[in-house]
Give the backbone structure.
Amino acid sequence: MAKHRDDGYLSARESRQISRANRKITNEFEKRWKRKNVPESEYLTEMHDKANAVEFDDLHTYFFTDSGTVKSVDGVSFEVPRGKTVGVVGESGCGKSVTSLSLMQLLQRPQGQIVSGEIRLNLGDKAYDITKVPQMAMQDLRGNVVSMIFQEPMTSLNPVFRIGDQVDEVIALHNKELSAQEVRKRTIEAIQMVGIANAEGICEMFPHELSGGMRQRIMIAQALACEPAIIIADEPTTALDVTIQAQILDLLRNLKDKINSSIMLITHDLGVIAEMADYVVVMYAGRVVERGTVEDIFHHPAHPYTIGLMASKPVVGREVKELFSIPGKVPNPINMPNYCYLRDRCDRRLAPCDGDYPCEIAISDTHTVSCYRFYEEYRAQAVADGKDDMSAFGITGGAQDE
C-alpha cells in the first residue's frame, strides 16, 4: 500500500479514511438541509443595513473531497446594495462562482457545503439567513427573489424542450394562480423584453436552433421572468463576440433599472466591470483581498494582486514588449497557508508578510484592503520602498493618493 508523500500523493487507504470522515460531516449538513416543516423563525434574521439587498458575512463554503477539504470560499464578506451592480473579479478558481452558488444553494451536494457564516437576504419586511434556509423553503426564493444567469446557455438550457416550455416552467412554479394561457402570455412578454422579435415563433424552437446571442437572451428572459430582487450574472458574455457582448450588457443595465433589481456581476473582464459596476470586489484564493467603488479600484488600486490585474490588461496608446503577469501559482486549496496567500508571488512583500494572514484595513469610507502595506505601523516602510508608484503600468493614481 502506498504511503502519503510530501508531493501530495495519497494512498488508497488514506483516501478511504478521508472519504469516511467526510461522509459523517456531509451527512449532518444534508440532514439539516432536507428537514421538512421547519419554522420560519429558525432562519429569520436582521439586515445590518436595510439599504442592502444581500449581505455576505464571513462565509465559508467547503468541498469535502477524497483528497481533502477544499476551502473554496474562506471567510468572504461584502454587500450588494439595492439597485446597484457589484462586480466580483478574480482569476479562475478564486471562489467567485461558488460564492454566488452559495446564495442560490446550488452547490454540488453532498460534497459542497456552507460550513459557517451568514448570507442575509433582504425580503423587504423581513430577512432570511440563506445558510439556514431548508431545501423546501429555498425553492420559493430561487428564481423568484434571487435569479441566476449562467455563463454557458447551451449547457444551461435543456436541449430536448422547446424554449417556451422552459420559460413557462419558471413562471408557473412561482405563480400557481395563473392559467396556462396567462403563463404563456408572460413568457412572450419576457422574451420580447430582452429584445427578441417574433417571440411566439421563438417559443416553439429548440435551443440548438438559436444563435449564441439569442440563447443568452433567453437565459436572461428566464432569469428575469419573475422580476427578482437580485440577479446573479455569472460571466454572461464569455461565449459571445464583442458586438453581441455590448448588446447584452446594455440589455442587463436597462432591465436592472426597469425592474429595480441589484446585479452581482461575476467576470474576468475588467472592461465589463468598468462599464457596468458601481462597486467592485476582488477575490483571490477564496478570500476578498480588496473592495471598494469602481473609482477606488480602477484609479487607486491598493492590493498587490489588484495592481497585477490592472497591469496585465492592455492599455490603448501604451506600447509594451509583453503584458505583465503575476509570477508563481496559487497555493494548494487543500492545504492553504496561514499567511497571506499572495506572499510567495508578491514583489511588494514586507517583513511582516511572513506573519498571520492580514486583516481588512479601511483606506477610506468605501475602500478596504487586506495587506500589511496599509497597516499604520508599516505604512512608512511601504512608501519608502517606492513600489506604490504604478505609472510604469499605465495606472496614474495609487492608493497613497486617496
In short: The CA atoms of residues 253 and 365 lie 26 Å apart. Residues 12-33 form the longest helix (22 residues). The chain is about 35% helix and 20% strand.
